[in-house]
Amino acid sequence: MKDEKVISVCKQIISAMEKKGYTLKLMFSAFDTDRDAMLTVNEFTEGMSLILDISPAILSKLFGFMDVLEIGMVNFEQFRAVMEAKAPF
């Protein structure tokens, strides 16, 4: 996924999130179903599907940008950096 596409998808998600009155922290906490302060790709894609209709393939790629340690999990700071389009793509 190209940088412009990542930023575009993040903007769509942020817009939908704001319309629902959510913050990034609230979204992260709601997606973290096992309460371990980390999101798996499944938690992320399942949670995002409640916010906006985006293909699982795109969400999986977006998650890959967040997973800088390549461990299959992301913390809030990694999530926020990408969602706010501050991460280096």
Characterization of the model:
With 89 residues, the chain is mainly alpha-helical. It has a single domain (3-83), classed as EF-hand (Recoverin, domain 1, Orthogonal Bundle). The chain is built from 5 helices and 2 strands; from the N terminus they run ααβααβα. Strands 1-2 form a two-stranded antiparallel ribbon. The longest helix has 17 residues, at 3-19.
Please state the CA-atom Rg, rounded to the nearest Å: 12 Å
Total beta-strand segments: 2
Could you say what the CATH topology is called? Answer: Recoverin, domain 1
Order of helices and strands: HHEHHEH
Poorly predicted ranges = none
N-to-C span: 9 Å
Q: Class, according to the CATH hierarchy?
A: Mainly Alpha
Average pLDDT rating: 91
User: Strand arrangement, largest sheet?
Assistant: 1-2
Task: Give me the CATH architecture, please.
Answer: Orthogonal Bundle
Strand-residue fraction? under 5%
Helix-residue proportion: 55-70%
Topology:
Elements: H1 3-19, H2 24-31, E1 39-40, H3 41-51, H4 56-66, E2 73-74, H5 76-83
Antiparallel strand pairs: 1-2
Helix pairs in contact: 2-3, 3-4, 4-5
Summarize this structure as a short list of keywords or feature phrases.
89 residues, mainly alpha, Recoverin, domain 1, two-stranded antiparallel ribbon, 2 strands, 4% strand
Q: Brief overview, please?
A:
The protein has 89 residues and is mainly alpha-helical. It has a single domain, classed as EF-hand (Recoverin, domain 1, Orthogonal Bundle), CATH 1.10.238.
